[in-house]
Each structure stands twice: as structure tokens, then as C-alpha cells.
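pinned: reference chain
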Amino acid sequence: MTNTSTNKRELRVLCVHKNITGPLDLMYEYRQWISGLLDNVDAQTPLRIFATDCRFLYIPSFDGEAIQYERVSSLPRALVHGFDVAHILAPLPPFAQALTAVILRLRGIPVLLSPNFYLGDDFATSSWFKERSKLFSKIRPALLRLSQRIWRLIGSGFMCASTWEMQQAHLPPERCTLLPWAEPDTPLANSVRQDNLEPAEGHQQGPVAYIGRFSVWHKGIDRMCAWLWEHKDSLPRPALVLFALDRPSSDQVRITPVWDSREQWPPTLEALLSEGLIEWDKTTVGAAMIPRLRTCRAVILLSRWDGFPRVLREAALMGLPTISTPSCHFADAVEFLRKGAIVGGDDTDELQAAFEEAGNAPGDTERAKSLFDRATVGKFLGDLYLAVARRAPVEDGNYYRHAERRYQATRSGS
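pinned: its C-alpha cells
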């Protein structure tokens, strides 16, 4: 019989995600969620966290620096004893995750789903599989809509990082909770946090910075080049600093995915480099990037589709404003932080206005630290698990409002 009693002291939570024992890659974001949860598990918090990769059951532990997973049994054996709530941390899950979600629901276990931006209409127009299969490109939007309907049947609730994600995935608002990803565990963010640096001020004459891989169409580098070329006569030198892993040659652009013809060398890039409008900085190691970043007025990311990019959170934690598109899912954070801009990406005049405004932005970091605090995010997630397990409505499913109240209470008490 499934264990669904929530009146006892301990609530059993199963987190379903992949790569538990493999390389972190993108899954480290999920581990940040779990480590934040474990930070809040104590005698006053009736949660016991388990994790599974759909094959084995693990018990995670967190020592303040790293999360460890101890394998304790197989998942089928664990399902005999049951859980009170399950959280599927997988976008468009492959067969194993989908089957696990169905089995959990059939056993009467409430399932919380995190689409993680991959059910949205903006993802339907992304570069994934483009030109690898033209047939798949045509039917992909229909497949995504079918996936949306299936997950609405399976999910007891949905956890989204932004209002844009909720709208693009056509999810019912009354079943959604807004919860952003926490502060990233990256060399840059760790350097900012450990060195306790003074906030970076927006430099009136400084450039904007792009941090990431050289992905022209996906990350919107072509949009940046179009803006720079259109307004080159009124821009400082440099106007854009590219922090990219490699500076590719025009005949061998290192991009992801390599099969997409839209990922090609922008025709104006060489001229922008030669005129000094773009500075290519190969520095990509956390602390080494900070001195140059502190001379920049903002961090820019014009993605056509994306997740909840860590570079935008890193910028906010440094005190830098951000310029991003709705597909970066950062609009709610920009509203909370009270600085930064959300732009369409293709309007060069709009980009120019955002560039000029960024130079006057304040350099405070307190709001960013409050918003992305790992322990606070973990506590909110733990409360959400309790509500889903009890099949009770979430009192306030908007973490951003919760963070605003917490921030104002902290300021009032200081």
C-alpha cells in the first residue's frame, strides 16, 4: 500500500533526475535544488529526500560544499514502500522517466513536474534537430503540444522558473508555482561570493559582455552583430566583449549544434573585430574574468531559446544589469532586481536604448543575493513538496513575491 500519510513526522520525497553518478553537465542545477533542500532538513522539517535515475534509489547528503549520493536499493524495490510526493526533474523525459512518472501516478503518488523550458513554443522553433530531419522539424510543434497535454494529465503540479515559461508551455496557472534556479555553483559565482567583492557599478562608457559558447543563432550573436553594425558610429570601442571558449576562424566555426545552417559566421563579425567594436577575450576561468567584467556596463544574452542562464544570475550577483530576451526566462528576475532590460532581440534601436540605459544602473547586489539564495530557494521548494503531498493549494506559489516580502522584512529589521 502506498505511503501517503503526511501527518507523520517524516515526509518521503523522491527526486527523479538523470546523471546522478555521472558528470554534472547541466544536471548540476538540479543538484543545487537538492542541496538547498538538504540545507533545510532538520528536526523541524519533516522531509526525507531520496533520488533516483529510474534504475536505482539513492540517498543524497550535503556537507556544505558537495552533494554525495549513496545507492541503497533498486527503484522497483523502493516503490513497494512508497513515497509521499515525487518531483520529476526532467524535460521531455525519455521512456524511463515517463514510465516512472506514470507508475508513480498509478500508485497514487502526487507528481510535481519541472518542464525546464522545453515544453514552450519558443523551444519549438529552436535549432534542435534542425535540418537533421526536416520531417521532424515540421511535426515537432505538434509533438510538443501532445507532450504538454500528456504532462497535464500526469502532473499534480508544475514548477516553472518564469511566467514566460508557464505561458509558452500553456500550463494552467492555478497548478503552477514560480521558482527560479538558485545561485549557480560556478567558478565565477563562487569567486564573487568568497571574495566578498564590492558591487560592480554600471560604467557609462563601458562595453556590454557576452559570456558563453560561440553559438551564433542559438545565443543571438548574430543579433548583437546586427545591432553593433547599425549603431557603430555612436558606440564606444569596444562596445561588446565576447568571453567565449574559443575564437573560431571563419571557415571553421565551433558551434552547437553543428548541423544547423543558421549557425554560421556573421558576415559583419570580421569588420566589427577590425574596427574595435568587438573585443574577443579568451579568459573563461571564474576569478580571472572578474576584473574585465567589472568595467562592463551589463551582461547581454539574446538567445532565441534558453533555460534560466547562469551567466545572468552571475551578472546579477556581481551587481551588473542584464540585457536579455524573453526566452531567457529572466523577466521576473529583472522586475525583482529593478534593473536590466528585456528586449525582443531583432530591433536594433531597442537594443541601443537598453545599452544606453544600462550605463546608469545602480550596482547593488543585495536583491540578487536575496533572490537566488540557495537555502531560501530550498526552503520554498520543501514547503511546495508538503503542499503537493497534502494535495493542498499552495498559499502563494510565486517565489518572487515571497522573496520581495523577505527582502523588505530584512531591510526593516536591519
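why pinned: The domain at 187-368 is CATH 3.40.50.2000 (Rossmann fold). The chain has a mean pLDDT of 82.
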